[in-house]
Amino acid sequence: MSLRDRVMVNQPGGLDDLVPFLVEGRRMGRMEPAFAAKLRDFERLFVRVEDGIELSPSLRTPAQRSDAMRELVVELAERGDLPPLRDELYPLVRGWGETPLLLIERSAAQSFGIRTFGVHVNGIVQGVDGLSIWAARRSSQKTAFPGKLDQLIAGGQPHGLSLEENLIKESWEEAGFEAFVARRARPVGMVRFRGRTEFGFHDDVLFCFDLSLGHNELPVNRDGEVSAFDLLSVQELRRMLSESEAFCPDSALVNIDLLIRHGELGPDEEAHYAEIAAGLRVPVD
Q1: What share of the chain is helix, strand, coil (3-state, %, to 5)?
Q2: pLDDT above 70 for 276
């Protein structure tokens, strides 16, 4: 798969069969038809509308909606219609910083196709031969993309934490770095990842950070979600992105963005440069 093909996955066509999930008349997600059909068993919570399936307007407050969705998600998980619960809540919003319409269990986010947010931290080591990038290999026990390579630090953005607080938490859990190291990470923009997977529809906004590390600052996983770390030259990174499926699809996009920002992927050497650069910045509707 070329770099262009990898980024064009981020522009999925054929979404017309997905069923809109609405709250207060707003489309807040997209559901696979098979999952949407499972909601017929919960008519007290949902109404069918011309545009899709809407959470009952009788649930008037965020707290009422959150409680109802919590009961629903628990039952669906017990039936095997959702992955195991993560006991972590995501806000239901369309835009970053909005007041949530409700809070939803993380494991249900992709099934309902809601917009989620996350932090991705590139661990960068500067050497005499140029940049090297730390890649974390996800544990084989992970539900999503087991064994694939990821950013040195990456995690979803739960409700109740700021981006900095989440970055510090994930830095310790995934790489064993103390807060004073994590705070050196610098925001460098965001990348959009969209696509259909076995778990539903991804609609992710990834806040990207660069963390410069010394040669003696070595990552050590603390939470068991990373099985190994690889330090890759930018040449190795680009080759792996172009020739293999080693990276998670969202991590691949963040790495392509890194190559562009650090001048390792330019318009003179990449015929599809404009499409690649634009494809990382899908407008947030």
Answers
A1: 30, 30, 40
A2: yes
Residue range 136-156, pLDDT digits in tens: 999 998 888 899 999 999 999
Q: How many domains, the chain?
A: 2
Q: What is the spatial distance between Cα 54 and Cα 125, in angstroms, rounded to a whole number?
A: 48
The per-residue pLDDT for range 6-38, each reduced to its tens digit, is 888 776 777 889 999 999 999 999 999 999 999
- pLDDT value of position 22: 97
By the 8 A CB rule, do 20 and 53 touch? yes
Instruction: Write down which residue in 58, 85, 112 finishes a domain.
Output: 112
Q: 206: burial class by Cβ within 10 Å (0-12, 13-18, 19+)?
A: buried
DSSP-assigned beta bridge partners for residue 49: 52
161 with 231, same domain: the answer is: yes
Residues 201 and 244 in one domain: yes
**284 pLDDT higher than 70:** no
The pLDDT, as a whole number, for residue 50 is 86
Same domain, 241 and 258: yes
In this model, does residue 61 exceed pLDDT 90? Answer: yes
Instruction: Give the Cα separation of 181 and 212 in Å (integer).
Output: 9
- Distance in angstroms (rounded) separating the CA atoms of residues 122 and 135: 8
Angle (CA) 149-152-153 rounded to 5° is: 115
Find the domain containing 84 and state its range: 19-112
Taken in order 7, 250, 246, 209, is the CA torsion positive or negative? positive
CA 262, CA 257: separation in Å to the nearest integer?
9
